[in-house]
C-alpha cells in the first residue's frame, strides 16, 4: 500500500475525525459558584482545496496525492457533538473573574481556565489557557477498513486572547485570537495482503481566530460561533510524509442552561 494512503488514517486517529474545539461562551466569566451546562454541535469544513484538486488531475503524481491526503486529513470535514460544563471560580482580585470549563467535542477533551481580567463598561478583555488531548485505539472503517489503529494519542495546549462586549447580561459578542501546539503518535497495522505495521510521531502547530455571539432568554442561552483554523503538521518515522498544512472554517452552536 502506498504510504500516502496511510496518512488520512493517522491524522484522523491523532486529531479525531470531525473534531474541533470552539469556545461557544462569552469573555464575561461566570459569577463565583455558578455552574452552566452547554450542549450543541460543531462542524469542521476544510477550505483549502487546491492540493486536493491537483491530486485529482489525470497527470497527478504520488507526491501530489500524498500532500493532498496530508492537507485534507488534518481537519476532516463533518459534524461533532459539543458538551461543556463551566464553573465560576472565586475572584483573584476585585473586578476580575475566573472560570473553569471541561469540554468534550467529538473524541477530544479540553480543560480550560479563563480569566476576565479587565472590564470597562460593557467591554471585557480576557485570556484563556487550555490542555487538550485524546486517545483512540481501534478500527477506522470510514477511512480504510483494512487498517487497524493499534495505538494513537495526542496531547497539547493552547492559549486565547479575546475581547468581548455585553449589554444588560443578555447580549454577548466576542472576538479572539488563539495559538496552540500538540504532540502525538500512532501505530497502525495494514492488513491488505501481508500485514505491515507503521509507527509515526507527529507535531502540530495551530493558529486561529474566533467570532461569536450569545443571546440569553431567561435561564436559556443560545450561542453561535465561527472559528478560522490554520494548522501545520509534521511527521517523523519510516515512510513519513512531508509537512503539510490546512485551513478550515468551524461553525458551531450551543444551548446553555444553569445547573
Radius of gyration: 20 Å
- Secondary structure category: mainly beta
**CATH class, please?**
Mainly Beta
N-end to C-end Cα span? 51 Å
Mean pLDDT over the residues? 78
Helix coverage percent: 10-25%
Short summary:
This protein has 259 residues and is mainly beta. It contains 3 helices and 11 strands; from the N terminus they run H-E-H-H-E-E-E-E-E-E-E-E-E-E. The chain has a 10-stranded antiparallel β-barrel with strand order 1-2-3-4-5-7-8-9-10-11.
Secondary structure: elements and pairs:
Layout: H1 7-15, E1 35-46, H2 50-55, H3 62-74, E2 78-89, E3 97-105, E4 108-120, E5 123-135, E6 138-139, E7 147-167, E8 171-190, E9 196-217, E10 220-236, E11 244-258
Helix pairs in contact: 1-3
Structure commentary:
This protein is mainly beta and 259 residues long. It contains three helices and eleven strands. It has helices spanning 7-15, 50-55, 62-74; strands spanning 35-46, 78-89, 97-105, 108-120, 123-135, 138-139, 147-167, 171-190, 196-217, 220-236, 244-258. The protein has a ten-stranded antiparallel β-barrel. The protein is elongated. The relative contact order is 0.23. The model is unreliable at 1-18, 69-74 and 139-145 (pLDDT under 50).
Amino acid at each position: 500500500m502506498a504510504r500516502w494512503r496511510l496518512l488520512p488514517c493517522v491524522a484522523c486517529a491523532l486529531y479525531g475525525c470531525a473534531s474541533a474545539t470552539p469556545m461557544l461562551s462569552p469573555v464575561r466569566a461566570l459569577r463565583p459558584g455558578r455552574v452552566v451546562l452547554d450542549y450543541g454541535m460543531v462542524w469542521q469544513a476544510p477550505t483549502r482545496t487546491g492540493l486536493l484538486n491537483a491530486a485529482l488531475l489525470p497527470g497527478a503524481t504520488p507526491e501530489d496525492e500524498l500532500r493532498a491526503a496530508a492537507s485534507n486529513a488534518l481537519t476532516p470535514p463533518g459534524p461533532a457533538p459539543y458538551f461543556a460544563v463551566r464553573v465560576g471560580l472565586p475572584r483573584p482580585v476585585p473586578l476580575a473573574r475566573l472560570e473553569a470549563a471541561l469540554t468534550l467535542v467529538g473524541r477530544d477533551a479540553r480543560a480550560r481556565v479563563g480569566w476576565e481580567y479587565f472590564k470597562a463598561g460593557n467591554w471585557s478583555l480576557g485570556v484563556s489557557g487550555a490542555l487538550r488531548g485524546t486517545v483512540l485505539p481501534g478500527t477506522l472503517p470510514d477511512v480504510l477498513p483494512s487498517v487497524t489503529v493499534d495505538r494513537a494519542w495526542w496531547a497539547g495546549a493552547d492559549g486565547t486572547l479575546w475581547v468581548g462586549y455585553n449589554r444588560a447580561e443578555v447580549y454577548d459578542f466576542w472576538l479572539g485570537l488563539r495559538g496552540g501546539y500538540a504532540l502525538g503518535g500512532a501505530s497502525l497495522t495494514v492488513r491488505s495482503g501481508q500485514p505491515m505495521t507503521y509507527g509515526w510521531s507527529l507535531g502540530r502547530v495551530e493558529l486561529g481566530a474566533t467570532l461569536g455571539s450569545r443571546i440569553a432568554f431567561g435561564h436559556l442561552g443560545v450561542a453561535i460561533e465561527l472559528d478560522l483554523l490554520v494548522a501545520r503538521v509534521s511527521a517523523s518515522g519510516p515512510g513519513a510524509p512531508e509537512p503539510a498544512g490546512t485551513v478550515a472554517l468551524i461553525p458551531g452552536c450551543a444551548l446553555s442552561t444553569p445547573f
